[in-house]
Amino acid sequence: MVTARRAGDAATEAAALVTLACAEPIGGNVEQIQAVLAQARAVASRVSASEPFLAAAIAESETLKYAGLHEQAATVAREGLAAAGEYGLARTYGAVLAGSLAEPLLSLGRWDEANEIIEGALQLFPLQLDRTCLWRLAGDIALARGDLVAAAESVASIKSVLDHARYQSQYHLPLIRLESQVRLSQGGRAQALSVIHDALDRFDVRQSPRHAWPLLVAGTRACAAAAAYRTLLPEAGAMLDRLRAEAGMPAAEGAAQRAHQLTTVVLAWPDDISRAEPDLDAVRGIVARRIARTATRLEDTYGPPRSPECRSRAEPPTAGGQPRRTRQIGGYGSQSGLG
Question: Phi/psi at 172 (nearest 5 deg)?
């Protein structure tokens, strides 16, 4: 950033500021992240640098969303979406910002408004991966409304693209979560378990807590539903053990991740949690002990877990050995700590 500033390269300086903001943990100071992104937009505006300007809008909306500030997230995304149209980038950055707008609207219960945004973006024929995000949001809304046919169609549309794409957690894990929920709502308890089982076998979900926590919630719910049937009880029990072990991933960041984490804990250890209420410290202690015992049992059965060096192809390690979490902002890549 300093070098770009000295060279008078405002576009690169703005891009560097966005990257710095994305490197901050989402559980950190939201106001500080917003200040850096406001600076990035101001620098980009001076030279009409559309990509870093819009990337800053996406990053700010994501920060606010994962901090649980959905109304503010929607406002920022709406402004960014309008700017994308003015820049002539409605099909690319605009599609991403449409998703950034529709998601907090979904959380706020403003489903009709979210659907209008999604349909408008899809009419512009966005890039395939961006299209899958919009289909996934449409599927979430359909599922919430009980329209299982539309929700299943969304899953099928997404899979037609992602089945032939390289694994990227921000696309594949939300699909798996949605598919499991749809299968369970259709009465397919075994199928819902199978979807989660395959995901845990194929992917190292811990490398992306932001998308893994909702997946764990879906998995524990599928286990609870399946356990009511004697023929599925062994499978449900084994899966619940695996999910309990996965719950030992790094601490959740931001309000949204913490909400999913606590939901997972309540579903995975219902008896222990009910006895510990309302003492949250006791709950944390129970969870830590249960995770340790489950991990030991799984290691005795299946061998030691994969080493830290065994990373997802989509998320290679940095030079320092820490997992690299990359979020793609439209066509603009940045190293992100936003979850």
Answer: -75, -40
Identify the domain containing residue 172 by its residue range.
Answer: 166-305
Here the tokens at position 212 are 């893994």
Structural tokens at position 64: 């606010």
| Assigned domain for 126 exists | no
Answer whether residue 34 is part of any domain. Answer: no
C-alpha to C-alpha distance for 302 and 190, rounded to whole angstroms: 23
For 268, the token pair is 């995975």
Q: What is the chain's pLDDT, residue by residue, as a tens digit (339 residues)? A: 656 565 556 678 888 899 988 888 766 689 899 999 999 999 999 999 999 999 999 999 999 998 889 999 999 999 999 999 999 999 999 999 999 999 999 999 999 999 999 999 999 999 999 999 999 999 999 999 999 999 999 999 999 999 999 999 999 999 999 999 999 999 999 999 999 999 999 999 988 998 999 999 999 999 999 998 999 999 999 999 999 888 877 677 888 888 888 888 888 877 654 444 445 555 556 555 655 555 455 445 444 444 333 333 333 333 333 333 334 443 333 323 333
Which of 161, 151, 202, 155 lies closest to 175 in space, CA to CA?
A: 155
- The helices-and-strands tally (H runs, E runs) of the chain is 16, 2
For the chain, the domain total comes to 1
Structure-block tokens of residue 240: 């619940």
Cα–Cα distance between 282 and 2 in angstroms, integer? 48
* Integer Cα distance of 101 and 86 in angstroms: 17
Residues 38, 64 contacting (CB under 8 angstroms): no
pTM for this structure?
0.79
143 lies in some domain: no
**Largest interatomic CA distance in the chain:** 69
